[in-house]
Model the fold of this input.
Amino acid sequence: NTNFEDKYETKETIGEGNFAVVKKCIEKKSGKIYAVKIISKNKLSKKDFDLINHEKNYMKLIKHPNIVSLIDDFEDEKYLYFIMEYYKGGDLYSFIYEHKKSEKNINEKTISKIIKTIAQSIQYLQYFGIVHRDLKPENVVFESKEDFSSLAIIDLGVAITLPYGAKSKEQVGTLDFTSPEVFTNKPYDHKVDIWSIGIILYILLTAGRIYPFDCNSKDKKERDQIIGKKIVFLQQEYPDEFFGNKSKYLINLIDKTLEKSPDKRITIDEFLSNYWLINNTK
Done:
């Protein structure tokens, strides 16, 4: 019979979406700081409501230090409340943008630690048959930017469970991180998350200054069409400015991760046993 206000006190807003706001909150009994996602029920369609419940069930199931989990949840007449860990270090997108703005490259050791932790989190999800489907820097957050092992994968809103051998054709995700099979509406499986890891790795190595498949057009429709064609037909390039001093093992790893054919694409176990990753995270 406890309601949200009985147990928690809300503080400042730390994020906003179409029908939800994320605030810092304090558990009254312990004084511990959490984040609460407050979702307005009157703005939800039936599909939105199903997706939110879907995400809630995943967060209840998952117990991994690098994947967001649900601490507590409440519901009243107007709102849903999801209590989660509070990550005060910001997200990976902001981390990359800070380096882009200052025109500073990100240390290769740092990149390897970040990408290894992301890959280990995806490996854990795959053990449960879960495909994230929207892996991108905005969905990676830090407890502390001084401790890269403290990052966590968030936003399981479009995640899906695929039994062994099963595939989906639903087109979801963010275009810049979308694999060729999703863009062309072909059946896909967990290999779509491997592709997204490859895009994130490439962006980290260029500090966000170039993407492997990009377009400068400000017209969204035109930009989406051009990027989509590049994803499907063009190979990524490795400008000397960013990759001239990189090892062949690293370039080879990106190539295997951004393999157009999902059947030929590297597996998550192969990714984590790659020479470059092991050598840089010793």
Remarks:
- The mean pLDDT is 94.
- Residues 216 and 223 are 7 Å apart (CA to CA).
